[in-house]
Each structure stands twice: as structure tokens, then as C-alpha cells.
Amino acid sequence: MSKTVIMAEKPSQASAYADAFDRSERKDGYFVVSDKEFPNAVITYGFGHLVSLFSPEDYHKEWKKWDLNTLPILPDQYQFKVSDGKQKQYTIVKKHLDEADTIIIATDGDREGEAIARLIINLSGNNHKQLKRLWINSLEKEEIKNGFRHLRNGEEFYSSYKEAETRQIADWLVGMNLSRLYTLYMQKSGMKGVFSIGRVQTPTLYLIYQRNKEIAAFVSKPFFELYGRFSHEKGIYQGKYAGRFDSEHDLEAFKEKHELNDHAPGHITSVKTEEKKQFAPKLFSLSDLQATANKRFHYGASESLKIVQGLYEKKIVSYPRTDTNYIGSPEFDYLKSALPSYLNLVNETIDEPQLKENKRYVNGANVQEHYAIIPTRTLPKLTALSQKERNIYELILYRTLSMFEKPYIYDETTIETTVNDILFKTTGKVEKAIGWKKFYKNEKKTKHTKEENQTLPSVREGDAVVSHFYAKEGKTQPPKYYTEGTLITAMKNVGRDAEDEENKVILRETEGIGTEATRANVIETLKKQDYITLQKNNILVTPKGETLCEVIQNDEIANAAMTATWEKYLKKIRNHEGTQEAFLNSITNFIHHLIQKVPGTFENSGVKAYAEKSEAETAIGMCPQCQKDIIDK
């Protein structure tokens, strides 16, 4: 009897698959399963990456030592091995793959998941066998069963694997060569420690560094704004002059010039009332969810991903590592049918649910691999979730429920009042239908929102008013520090601030730097390398991070556009428009270029002076024997 082996990414995923079969039995490192369609099958799994690239010393012993003379490290052929500590599970997986007639790749449905499975299959010598692909968006039993009934041809996903393998090798090349290159020159200049360089982490660090520099250099300046309080027979309202003044003296001179005295007569030159509709926010992609969770609960990007991944494994939300805000018609249909249950779960009601598809949310053309993060048909017991799990689940649930509510509708009235030819503008808002905002009524209102919501008297164009003028002092504000939430968004939208038009286009096409699945990990790496630290949710660059950024600021490795160009070409590999060989050649040329450039970079940097200052600051006293400083390392 032919044997089918199902390759899952980790034990929890394998267990969910096993539950979907008629019969399953857990063994050491695998499950034996069977049903009508698969009478003889095994589900086995990795623990994430069972297979990893060789270390430099695995190729040549002399590559183990960090030495400028051994750079660049460029293997003739890139090889993979069983990851440290994973040999036992790899042996179990290989045994079943060796016995398999058909292999079903059932790892996570993204390029990294594809690579995890295929690298194991390749190393085990079984890549000649028939490959099928399980492609699902949730771990619910019915979704899994349906996925196994409609397996896809493994060949369809080969290019995704090549894209992921190419990225992995490129990141290895950049990390191994440039981390050694910059570290050794840092150490020659008197710095201590290791300076890690990465294709995405380094431009991300530089992004944070630039923001911190802007804040440090910012000089707050006072400004003054002119307001009018206008008395009308039907009531009183406030208006604002559009200009700003550098000093109170300038404001008073302006008032004097235009005879803006208290009780000066004015008249209403325009009254416009316009009905406005505000539709509910789009459904969550992973980065949007991470940004919202950070703003609302101060959860780090990695923490949010871990929580939502746990909810996915509990089968109550859809696949989380998604970059789209849209769902298709099938998902909308099941959400629609489950709507009463969702509402009952959180004791909410929708009087007139919007049950027709709206392209703002439902657009199959914008669903490439996975749809937006939404609740599954499986309802959780909310009391059984931890507080953090419940917070994230309710974010997803309420965002989904909002799609079925009416738009938020209000009348916006704009009054223009003129006193001695000087225009004052007043905006007021009257809510007509709260719509989806009912789900967010406890959110804090900003000062700007409060001004917009002032109740206005019933006035008409041409009406006379009596004026009273007053000033408000404000201060120019520096840019805000990045939080993990705003940094995730900045990485995704980094192209919006690019000065070079070509770079802007590239960054927009690739959705910035990093991917939905990797951005949180990049931030964690920067923390582990002691490049950044958190202070009250704000991200600050450490002295170590600042030193590196001072050195690399004119090197291409700091440029987000370069990283995005690479990402763009990786997508070409997936789309059969590019090759691994061409991409790795470009990376190799880039490494050669920096090896030539970096000595000059250090010559022109102030890193030696910084190192001397840094060492003096870490001195804890003088040695009584040799009279030299004792350094705290």
C-alpha cells in the first residue's frame, strides 16, 4: 500500500491536522493517521527550521577566525545541514520521507514555510518524489478536511521556495561578510564587541537613528493663534484665523492694523453644511494589527505576533502572517452566516446589518495568498482566554463586526465669519448615525476632535455678529519617537518619505522593507544586539547603535531603497522573471564593493575619538601596579 507523508511545520500544527482525520495515533515525533482518502498516512513535523545553512567553518576551517584577510567569504556551492540540537527529529522525519510515495507539504502557507519543508526534503534525498501542497487559511477541522480534498500541485510553489532559499543565502552572505567587516574595523578603531549587520535590520536601525537625531536637534518655538468668540442672536460660537504668529507682539500688531477690537462688528460670509460618511476601517493585515495592539495595549510587535499565532493554533482566527486587508466572497459568506453568534459572544447588536459585499473589504482580486485576519467559525469561550489573548481576539472581532455596521454619518457645518476683511473659520459636527463607531465609543477623543464637535447656533449667511478676540499660545512639537507599532508601519510605508522618485516607486511596489512575517523579528534582533532600547514604549537608539549609524550613514547598507530593490527582485524569482544566480551575483558584487569602500569610511569617521571617550567613561579606577585605567567590560 502506498504511503503518504504529510510534512507540518511544528507539533501543534501537526496535531490540528491529525484531529481532522477519522483515526489518529500519536507517536514519538509523528502521528499515524487514516481515513477514506488517505488509508495509510503519517504526519510528521519540524520544530521550525530543522535544516540550516553551513557555518563558514563548515566550508573551510580558516573561515572560523574573524580575519579581514579571509574576506569575502563566498562558498562555491551553498550547503545545508541539520540544525544544532535537531538531529533526533530530523532522523524521524527522514525515515518517513524515505518510505513515502507521496509527500504533502503542509507547513505555513508562505515562502518561509515552503522553504522549511523543501530544505528538509532536499537534504533527506527525497526531492524526486511526488509533491503536493496543502493550502489553507485556518486550522479548523472543516477547513483542513477541505484542504486535503483539494490539494494543489507542489510544482506551483517551487518558485516560492527558490525565492525563500535565495533570501536565506543572501542574508547569510550579508551577515557573515559585513558583520565581520564592520566589526573588525570597529575593533581596529578601539571599539569593543561585535557589530551585527543585516540586510533589513541595518536600514531599520538607521531609520530609527534618523528619527532620534531629528528629535535631538529639534528646537521648540512658541507660536500664537488668533481666535474670535462671536455672539449671534441665536448663540455663541468660536472661530479661528488661519495664520500663526511668532510672538504675542506680532499678533497684537496684526489686530491693531486690522482694527480687530472687542465688540467689532462682523458678519457671516458663508454657511455650508455637508453630510459626510466615514466607513469602518479596513480589516486587519498583520502589520495593521501589530500597530493597533501597540497603540492600544503597548504590546511589542513580536508579542502581538506570538499572541495571534496562538489564537490561530486554537483555531479561532485565520492565518495571521498576511499582508492584505481584504477577504474573498467565501469568507464574507461564512462571516455573514456566523454574525449572530459573534454578536452574542460580546453582547452587541446591529440593528440593520450590511449584508451586501463592499469592495472596501471584500475583493478577491486583492487576495493573493492569504486573506485578512478574521475570526473563524469556531467561537472561543472568552473567559478561557488570557487577558492578552482576549484583547487581541476582540480587536480582530470588533474590526470584523464593524464591516457589517452602517457608516458613521455626520453633518459637518463650516461657518466663515469676516471682521474687517479678516476671515475666521468655524467647524462643527453633528452626529446623525453613530454606525460602526458604537464599537469604539470608549476610545479617547483628541483636543482637535473636541473643537470639531462644538455645538453651533443656527445662523445664516449675511447675519451680523459681535466679536471678542483672544490668543492661544502653542509650541512647535518635535517628531514623535517610533514605537514598535509606528515602526512596523514606517517599515511598510518607508517609501512615502523617500526623496528619490525611483526609490519611492520601488519602496511602494515592495511595501517597504521586510515582510509581514519578518518585521517583528527584525525589531527583536535590534534589541538583542543592544542597538535599541525601549523607554515608555518609545524606541531609543543605544550608544552602540549610534556609533554604528555614524559609521554607516554614507554606506549603501543604511539605505532602505537598496533593501527594497532586493525585495523587488526576490518577487521576480517567485514570478519566474528572475534567477537565483543573478540575484546572488548582485549580492556578491555589493559585498566586494563594500570591502573596498569601508576602509575609507572608517578613515573619515570619528569612531576613534568616540572609542577613546567611551573607554574613558567606562574606567572604574586606576591600577595601582601599572597606573593604567581599569575598564569595566
Structure at a glance:
The chain has 633 residues and is of the alpha+beta class.
Tally the helices: 20
- Report the β-strand fraction as a percent range: 15-25%
Low-confidence stretches: none
- What would you report as the Rg, rounded to the nearest angstrom? 30 Å
First-last Cα distance: 64 Å
Average residue-wise pLDDT: 91
Summarize the main sheet.
7 strands, mixed
Overall shape: it is: flat
Secondary structure tally: strands: 19
Q: Multimeric state of these chains? A: single chain
Q: What is the strand arrangement across the widest sheet?
A: 2-3-4-1-7-8-9
Computed structural class: alpha+beta
Helix content: 40-55%
Structural features, described:
The protein has 633 residues and is of the alpha+beta class. It is built from 20 helices and 19 strands. The chain has helices at residues 11-19, 56-59, 87-99, 111-123, 141-149, 158-188, 201-217, 248-257, 286-297, 301-313, 329-345, 387-402, 447-452, 484-492, 501-509, 519-528, 543-552, 560-574, 580-603, 607-617; strands at residues 4-8, 23-27, 30-34, 41-45, 51-53, 80-82, 102-105, 130-133, 152-153, 222-232, 235-245, 265-278, 408-419, 422-433, 464-475, 532-535, 538-541, 619-622, 629-631. The strands form five sheets. Strands 2-3-4-1-7-8-9 form a seven-stranded mixed beta sheet, sandwiched between helices. A hairpin with a 2-residue loop joins strand 16 (532-535) and strand 17 (538-541). Helix 4 packs across helix 6 (158-188), helix 6 (158-188) packs antiparallel against helix 18 (560-574) and helix 10 (301-313) crosses helix 12. The longest helix is centred in the N-terminal third of the chain and has 31 residues, at 158-188. The protein starts with a strand and ends with a strand. The mean pLDDT is 91.
